[in-house]
Specification:
The protein has 430 residues and is an alpha+beta fold. It has helices spanning 3-16, 18-55, 98-107, 142-148, 160-164, 174-180, 185-188, 235-242, 261-276, 290-312, 314-333, 335-343, 348-385, 393-419, 423-428; strands spanning 60-67, 71-74, 80-83, 112-116, 118-128, 131-140, 152-155, 169-173, 192-197, 200-210, 229-234, 250-255, 283-289. The protein is built from 15 helices and 13 strands. Helix 1 (3-16) packs across helix 2 (18-55) and helix 13 packs antiparallel against helix 14. Residues 21-264 form the MacB-like periplasmic core domain.
Amino acid sequence: MLIGENILLALNGLRANKMRSLLTMLGIIIGIASVIAIMTLGDSISSSVTDSMASMGANNITVGVSQKSTSQETTSSGMTFSMGPRFTKMTEDDYISDEMLDSLEERYGDSIQGFSLTESVGSGTAQLGSLYAYVNATGVNEANLENTDLTLLAGRTLTERDQIEAKKVCLVSDYLVNNLFNGNNMAAVGQTVDVLFNSRYYTYTIVGVYKYEESDMGFSSSSEEDTETTLYLPLQTAKNQTHNTNGYSQFTILTASGVSATSFCDTVENYMNERYYQDNESFEISAMSMESIVESMTSMLSTISLAIAAIGGISLLVGGIGVMNIMLVSITERTREIGTRKALGATNGSIRLQFITESIVICIVGGMLGIILGMIIATVATNMMGYAVSPSITGIVVSVTFSLLIGVFFGYYPANKAAKLNPIEALRYE
């Protein structure tokens, strides 16, 4: 009998016994659905996290001053004790200086696109009469603003001249404009705003308005009036306000195109430590790339998804056992049919192939229903969590393949039993 005829017979059998077939496939459906839902949900979260981090600069390297790593001391008796980091206050010599940055750029200029520098001023309240808006003031250089990729709604960005002359100008968000200037972005440009920091007022001139995005690191609450957004100042203006003449505790390297941030990260760390911090007893340079964080997080999410999917896959084995059970019942019910076919010349191989095909069809149909159910569950879950749905192609392929293998594995024993029936005894079967 041809394979096509076997498939049609199997499909006709499913239609003739709809409820029994559905109950037989239930374990397969639940197992496949759980695997697809979990893997799709994991891929969606992983993709969203990766895209979010990439928008923050996956090729960027954050370099900072940190306490020396844990050291060990050995007593005269030979016992070894771990000594924790020395919690020492940083002095002027411990900070990263402009000379260090110039030296780093001169040494690795081909790999460095620029340095993103910041100086935190702190949280404050921008006021205009009785109106107010919460802000977090941060001093930034030009490279930082370019890397931040702000959407400018009105006015201009901070210029090189603003940086050199340390002008008291600022970029503010449209949230602040909504609170203080009734949402009129153009009217806000050129106006002065007083900001209260630690009981002292500072006055800045607004030169530009940017669009506030939820991805900004400012605190967000349910009330727009209480949302804290970033107020950008020229770097030198912020340093003058904080009276910071020491240097930088950390900075970000914007790597050139084609440079592996992960490997260059170690290069920068080793260079800075060997040249400037080798004799420093308390502090050292540590570097971290966003690329390595993305890789680690993606790997972790994938491992968790696979582990949970494997647990969900246990129900596939239960489903396979159900398929084997129903095939044995089916063979018992169709003993006379098998005997008739063998009496008419059907070989053991054709009988075996017929029942294995039926088993495979049951598992494949159950697998397809499971894929549809799993995608529905994953779509609902990812939408509720606010992520974009990213179908797991790997999960779908693995599920279909696994369904096929289950059909062959759990269908072979019943099929082989049917093939070995004695035709004379089978014809006598009532």
